[in-house]
Amino acid sequence: MAMYENFVPERLAKLRTQKGVSARDMSLSLGQANNYINNIENKKSLPSMQSFLYICEYLGVTPQEFFDEGNPAPQALQEFIAEAKKLDSRSLSYILGIMKELNNRK
Q1: Which of 5, 11, 42, 105 has a C-alpha 20 to 30 A away from that of 95?
Q2: Neighbouring C-beta atoms of residue 30, cutoff 10 Å
Q3: Residue 28 and residue 77: Cα distance in Å, rounded?
Q4: CA 103, CA 77: separation in Å to the nearest integer?
Q5: How far is it, in rounded angstroms, from Cα 40 to Cα 34?
Q6: Tens of pLDDT along 14-31?
Q7: Per-residue DSSP letters for 5-74?
Q8: Residues 6 or more apart in contact with residue 48 via CB below 8 angstroms
């Protein structure tokens, strides 16, 4: 349980920041009190399952993506995959080569 008590607030803050929305605006958009998201991010409370599903929907991520630590930017990855699907195989191979080159520089 302790792992999720830290993971959920940190992941929520990260994904909310990527979306470029304030904790207050997100709280109000979810129909909650203006300090709702702040309380979760500050580890004062955890969302109910139903609220968690609304949070995922609002952030544009699946629950699986929310908990996938190996996917730091799920919305960007969804967009990347959608665009990649439109490419022909030659273009896809070209992009894949660039990605591998970038990853080898680290």
Answers
A1: 11
A2: 16
A3: 27
A4: 16
A5: 12
A6: 999 999 999 999 999 999
A7: HHHHHHHHHHHHHHHT--HHHHHHHTTS-TTHHHHHHTTS----HHHHHHHHHHHT--HHHHH-TT-S-H
A8: none
